[in-house]
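User: ok so my PI wants both of these folded by tonight, can you help

Assistant: No problem, let's get them done. Here's the first:
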Amino acid sequence: MAVGIFDSGLGGLTVLDAATQALPDVSFVYFGDHAHNPYGVRDADDIYRLTTAAVQRLFDAGCDLVILACNTASAAALRRMQEIWVPRDKRVLGVFVPMIEALTERQWGDNSPPREVAVKHVALFATPATVSSRAFQRELAFRAIGVDVEAQACGGVVDAIEDGDLILAEALVRSHVDALKRKMPEPQAAVLGCTHYPLMEDVFQVALGKDVAVYSQPKLVSASLSDYLNRHPNMLGSGKESMFLTTGDPRKVSDQATRFLRRKIEFRAA
């Protein structure tokens, strides 16, 4: 019973941590494409090629369901993968929809027409590729009308977090929030559209102000995954071993991941 979790780097470990707490009896196979990250500065075709290769490796490891815990891959590759590439007996899901459902207060699987919602002004913080894809706005439009979204590309934040330079990461977050607030002075809600950003959630909250609701992905995605598996238990794959795979240097990535999660993580070569 294995579920795959994919990210271009370490950010998806925040989703993995929440998922393992919510689903302690499920094995998870994590794939980090560290040899090719960051994805946030790549074009859509390149992201699609790399993402399909990584997901295929997770299918080969016995995962019938894969979560793209990479917002950039979810934004730039997921729809195309679902339309032309994913086999009929497999599923690949992204991380945007659970956040949008929480933001718009719609239940999982609610396919009714879009309607007005309480939140009218939303700040989106994401990588440059996610912002340019406008995937968040597209998915939101399926569920809500009359919502103004102002997106801020947060260059440098992911690299600073993965390098362990949290002082630089905090400074960059404050700078990006200032830039966003010049365009949207009073956002009602903020979406952290990258799985690295939960590590900076407190910094985002302080910079935005206590009255802004901050939506972060790990708990929302893990709750949606639990619900999905309750309704589709057949999507638990045949894999039985939890493992961490990387296209990078396993020793280096293991050290970075251990610092990232503050517990021992051991990657092996993909």
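One down. Here's the second:
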Amino acid sequence: MTFALFLAVALSIVAAIHYYFWVRLVRALVLPSWPHRILSALIAALALSVPASFWLGHAIPHGRGRVVLLVLYGWMGFMFLLLALLVATEPLRLLASLSHGLGGPVLDARRSRTFARALAVTVVLGAAGLGTVALRQGLGPIATRELSVSLPRLPQALSGTTIVQLCDLHVGPTLRRDFVEQVVRRTNALQPDIVAIVGDLADGSVERLQAMVEPLRGLKTRYGVYFVTGNHEYYSGVDDWLAYLPKLGIRVLDNDRVCIGDPHEGFDLAGVNDWNGASVEPRHGADLGRALAGRDRSRPVVLLAHQPRAVHEANRLGVDLQLSGHTHGGQIWPWTYLVRLQQPLVSGVKQFGRTLLFVSHGTGHWGPPMRLGIPAEITVVRLLSGGRAPQATLHPMRDASP
């Protein structure tokens, strides 16, 4: 029932958006009969393409139909940009309507029609231009970004330890084995001590995507590769994924922690399940208390938690650094502003009490193969000892090519 309700709401929103497109880009233009019918049919087809993209993404055998899926998912991105630009023009339409009547009914009808057509062309061309830039960024090379974090309780022997954070790879309909191979190659070139995969690895079942994620077996580290669930694992057969990943040499932190370095002079790496996990699988709720139970409080702790909003409990329980993803940094501006309504931080680093929170842009993308002003990233977290309190410096992005 919950899924059916979600589906009904989602389809209603898609239908409403495309009706708005029809009103502003077809009806308001007062076109001759045949262009009116063609554009109306096109908008109806585009509306149907949104649910079709999700169905085809799971129905088409892996390795096939990628171009078709890129086009269908690409429309989702263009749809959002077109919607944002159309909404931004509403004040101009209001001003135009208030001036109606100043030139007489015939002149005003012509002016109104000319104005509506000019505005429509401008908006469509603007969305096309922004969409082209977003496609280039979304399908372009991944950047690397370095975060230097000073932890007062970190032993000097472990100062300089590097954690390469990967998250939100979303392997599946549009991101496939070649993408995973690229990520593994670039990660290994960074010579990490630890690799942390912070949720949303795949959009699909193990049976369907096993061959695509298999290159993860090639990740090379000093202390291991670790994984925590994201919300998308719970749409893709979470138990199967948790059973499969250890076969690739990946340790799952299921509300658990491990010791990094010497048992007496090291730090704790903890991981919790996704914030929404319990809503799908009751036993999969995030339980930071369990992950930290019985630990030596003199040791610093780094937490892997897919969603940034886990930071409030992390602060309460004495976590030094939390590494998160989930937001994609907004992925396509201005979606960033909507993400801020749900999460305490969309991207970057911020102090919450005694806990430092870092939120990655993500390594892949979800849905539209687009990123606008928010490039995908592989993050190198460099842990340093010293200081009176946890402090962080986020360095500029750079090309990730080995």
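DSSP finds twelve helices and 14 strands in the chain. The chain has two domains: 2-138, 143-399. Good luck tonight!
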